[in-house]
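call fold(seq) -> C-alpha cells
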Amino acid sequence: MIILNAISKSYDNTPVLKNVSLRVDPGERVSLLGPGGCGKSTLLKIILGLVPPDSGEIELLGCDMAHASEKEKLSTVRRVGMAFQQGGLFDFMTVEENLLFAMEHMTDMSSEEMSAKIEQLLKIVKLGRTRRMFPHELSGGMKRRIGIARALATTPQVSIFDEPTSGLDPVTSTIILNMISELGGEAQDNALLIATTSVEIAIRFSERIILMNAGEIVADGSWKKLIIEGDDWVRHFLSVRLIGIDVSYARELGLPDPFLRQHWSADLLA
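ret:
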C-alpha cells in the first residue's frame, strides 16, 4: 500500500527527513509515533504527493508519487482517505456538504447512496443532528469526528490520520479511536496509518509502531517487544509516559509482564 525508500527532505538547508524507509502492507494498522517536530506531518504530505522529497522513492497504491503526472496522482489520491489535525473541514460548508464533497469528487456513488452513507456515518459518530450545522457551531471534538468520517466516507484503500486525538479529553479520544477502528475496518485489506505524539494512543491503536526522532526512523516493530528490547532512547520514550499509571489500566493496555514487574510493586501486581 505504501512503500518509501530513502526519503530525505530539507527546508532552508535544515534536514527534516533523513533517509526514511518504510512499508505498510494491505490489512495493516500502523502507528507513526514520535515527538512533536520530528517530521511526521512532512512525511505524510510526501506520501500524499503534496510535498516533493529532495531524494528517494515513494510508492502509494502502486503509483510513483515522486514522478507521476498530476492526473495519475489525483487518480491515486481518490483511493486514499486523509484526516487532518484540526478536522480540515470547509468552514463555508455544512457538515452534510463537507461529507458530500468527498464522495462527489472521489466516488461514483449515486445521490441516494451518498445520502444513505451520510446518515450511516453520522449515526456511527453519534452526530446525527449536526447534518445542517456549520463547523463554527461544532466543538473541537465534534469537528475531529466529522473530519474522520469524511476521510472514511469514500471507503478508501489507505486511510491516514494526522494527530486524530491531539488536545482532546480521554473520553473523546476513545470515541475517536473506536470510530476509526469501526469505520476503517469495513474492508479487510485496507491499510490504516495514524501519526501521533501520544504513546498511549499509538499502542492502543496498533501493535506495530514506527518510531521517529529528529527526522529518522529509530524503531519499527511490535511496541510490546520494543518497550522491553529497544535501545535506551526507544525504551525511555515508550515507557516514561506509562510508568505510574494505575496497574489495572496498565494491564488493560496490554503492557507486557516483564515491564509490569519492573515498574510496579509485587503487592500491586498480586
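Residues 22 and 122 are 34 Å apart (CA to CA).
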